[in-house]
Structure formats: structure tokens, C-alpha cells
Amino acid sequence: MNYIVIDFEFNGAFSKRHHRFFNEIIEFGAVKLDENLNMIDTFSELVSPQISKKLNSHVSQLTHIKMNDLKESNNTFTHVLSKFKKFLGDGMLLSWGNSDVLVLMENCRYFYGEETLPFLKAYCNLQSYCEAALDYHDRSRQMGLSTCAELLGIGFEDDTLHRALTDAELTSLCFQKLYRPELFEKYVDVCDERFYQKITFKNYNIYDLRDPNVNKKEMFFLCDQCGRKAFRRSKWRVKNKTFRAKFRCFRCRREFEGRITVKKCFDSVKMIKRIAEIPDPKHKDKARSRSTENESTQPTVNE
Ligand SMILES: [Zn+2]
Questions:
Q1: Nearest-5° angle of CA 146, CA 148, CA 151?
Q2: Of 148, 165, 166, 302, which residue is least crowded by CB atoms under 10 Å?
Q3: Structural domain that includes position 286
Q4: pTM of the full predicted structure?
């Protein structure tokens, strides 16, 4: 089976017909890898937009694509998509992050009125896979493609990035370097009904202690100085969708505020803990949170 690594460039436009913003695909880029991950073919097409009247400044700055280039391509979305479907065949689709698939769905919904992508058989989010393969844990944000390439020692030129084919090629190089069959298998989704539920699921924060997704046994803190379990000295309260309580380590005589964000994801609940200095009521604005962070993930459903 072949692997098709995709990347799209898209432009935000207001659709008068649907009275809402729409991410219109303006460029398709894809790399085809054979079962041994050799690059065997590429796909690169511009799309002449049907809704966008002009390109947003950040899109033209990032991609250096000009409206004229798009118009001169004389390609409609439906035309390019039908060519792409032939290129994809029954291969597996891969992309850096979910957003390309969501944008493809958005475009297919707009131009065909279809809610799913019937030509997709299997999909892998390479961002999640590469984070797992590299054991990358930055809780504040997801790993960017250029960060991943840098960590792997893959050279690239900044100004050639943000074009569909270049990004798809760089994604493929990361995939080649990090491919481990057993781990990879766990990150492949079959594109059935559950896949569409999962990919369109919007994570949300839980801030009601009675919610059964909140595992109260996990709502403890270890002292950031000695590592011993700290004692909770106040009731939990909620601020900014985060649970907060005062804690004290009797050994260090250290008091701090424990902050817990509980995030409901499609098939798991993530608990993100942070230790903050107790805000001084006189200088509320100056209270800054400290960096110690840990996270525990409790799957609610076995995959
Ligand atoms: Zn301590």
C-alpha cells in the first residue's frame, strides 16, 4: 500500500451564499511513498478560487502565492480533487495535524454537499505520531513541523516552507526518519463513522467537580521543592475554567496554589496541573504562575 502525505494552502473567505467564513483551498501538495517509504511521485496543483476575491495578507506573505498565479492555473477545486483522487488511489492519507483533513472536508461540503470523504480509506495524523515517536512533551503547544525537522537534523530553508508540496516533502522526510511499524499502527485511523466523530470533536474544559470525567483521586499536588505530597488547605474553586486550591507542604513550609485544567478530548480526559504562587490580594496583577507542570492522562475508553 502507498502512503500519500498531503498539505494544503488555504485562504479564509466570506461566503455570501452560506453567510459564514470558509477556508478555501488554493493549493494541493502531496508526496507518494511506496510501502518501503521511498518517494515515488509528487502532486502539486494551484486552485483558482471561486469564493475568495483576494488573498489575505498573511496567506500571501506566508506562501508568496499571487491571485494571478491562481487564476492562471485555470483549475477549479472539483477538477483538482478528481485528479487528486486518482493520485491517492487506495493509499493511506497522512498529514501534519488534522487541519488539512478538516479543510478538505469543509471544501467537499461546500462544493459537493458531502459531509464525509468517501474516497478516504485510512488516515494518520503525523503530528500526533511524530510527537509520540520523539517522546515530545511540550504541554503548552503541539510540535510544529519545522521543530520536528530540526530535532531530526533535517535541513530546510525557511522561505521555501509554507508551500504545499515543500511542506508535504518535509513531512515525508520526518515520517521516513521516525517510522516504527508497531507504533505507527496505533496512530492509523480507519475512516469510518467513528473517525468523523473523532476528527470533528471539539475538546472542552470541564469545570464542575461533580462531572464524572473528573477523577478526584488525581487532584493532588506534589511539592515542587521536595516532591512530597502537599496538603490541600482550601476548597476547590473555579476560575477561568480551572480548578484552584491552596496547598501546603509542611516539610518545606511552602504554600502554593494548585491549578488543574481538566480537558475532555474525544476518547480521553487530560488533566493538566500547574503550581502557582498564591496571589497577593494587594497585588493581584503581579501574581505570576510558576513553571512546574505535570500532566496525567486517564483514558476513559480503551482504544
Ligand atoms: Zn516540600
A1: 110
A2: 302
A3: 204-299
A4: 0.80
